[in-house]
Amino acid sequence: MATSTPNQAGRILISGAGIAGPVAGYWLAQAGYSVTIVEHAPSIRTSGQSIDVRGHALTVLQSMGLEEEVRSRTTHEKGLRFIDDHGTTKAEFPVDPDGPSFTADIEIQRGDLAEILYDATRDKIEYIFNESISSISEDGHGTTLEFTSGLQRRTVDLLVIADGISSRTREIAFPDLPSSTVQNLGQWSAWFTIPRLQNDDGWARWYNAPKGRMILVRPDTSQQKSRVSLWIITTSDLESTLVKSQNTENQKQLWTSLFTDADWSETPHILQGMMSSSDFYAQKVAQVKMPRWSTSSTVALGDAAYCPSPISGMGTTLAITGAYILAGEIARNRPDIPSGLAWYETRMRPFVKTAQELFPGTPWLANPQTRLGIWLLHLLLAFVAWMDWARVLGARYSPAADAIELPEYAFSWGFFRGKTATATARRREEGVGT
């Protein structure tokens, strides 16, 4: 069993220093736990795509005192334009701060948010880089961990797995997971930055090419770069080729061959920039659906437990909200960790289920195979924009980022009352919705 000092509630180790891990670490430290985060990378990964901060995710960041810093590092993206081969806008959707839209009111680079969270927690919790877990052993009273790169064996009260969709730690901790846990959506994406394109005016640009291909260019916080993602609908043969292409340079060559005949005038500049980029990475587009998230002293969090896919726009919201609720339930049920884990799953499951319900026809509808299909897509989007139906469709098919009651938790060094919890309490006092 893990031992703790009189001033500690217990010892917790988190695998993964992305978004969910540091947020959970912050709140667990607030509750008096001794927290360590191990990360297999040599440092915080500052690359990555633009991510949305919506609903309760923003509420939690506000409670951590980070809203001002987050807002200062947003991309200031103006909205999204769908363009043709000549760069001509076929449909335009500006930011809508009052309702659902393609671009969130707060759009920030994943790496910037990870850096903000690291800076906010590095003095409160222990970070160990270049390290990962090699074995996990539970005895009903804690978890004993061994590591790959020399860190001595540790026994902790709780292991939190927050190391992403391809988590190896998850496979070690839950060896009986079904093969359907990671559900491929039939699409791959590649992400990288390039020198800022000449026509980058603060709008995101979405370009479709035949054979289910898409190029998305978005502004960067620095204003010196453009952030690019390439997307392609995969066949079984292409899927196999992409999986086998592990070397970064080989991956770049493969993606170049897949997009070299895309007719957008910016394509050559984008592919040339990709070949010299230092932050390139590619991954399949998938969802994670674990039948259970925890054992007696191990729990999965964020993308490792319930990745909704980048298509949903809900990954960051689930990660931050889930981290806060996990920490809160552990604190509320102390010292009964299994009960805290059960309550975490009870509260989060319905929210996760809603977030993972994608728009019908995703991702094929937005990535046509033919020029006729692209023309029809542009026609449909132009009609939606002209009728100003984006908010209506978003409200109908996009999961609300606050579609869960954010509970109230008493932490040993503070007390946070969530906005939704406050509003719910007020409605109950007024006899509304009861």
Automatic annotation (TrEMBL):
An annotated Gene Ontology molecular function: oxidoreductase activity
Signal peptide stretch: none
Gene3D superfamilies: D-Amino Acid Oxidase, subunit A, domain 2, FAD/NAD(P)-binding domain
Keyword RNA-binding: no
Pfam families, per the entry: FAD_binding_3
InterPro entries: FAD-bd, FAD/NAD-bd_sf, FAD_aromatic-hydroxylase
Keywords: FAD, Flavoprotein, Oxidoreductase
SUPFAM superfamilies referenced in this protein's UniProt entry, alphabetically: FAD/NAD(P)-binding domain
Domain FAD-binding residues, every copy: 12-353
The protein's name: FAD-binding domain-containing protein
Source organism of the structure: Exophiala sideris
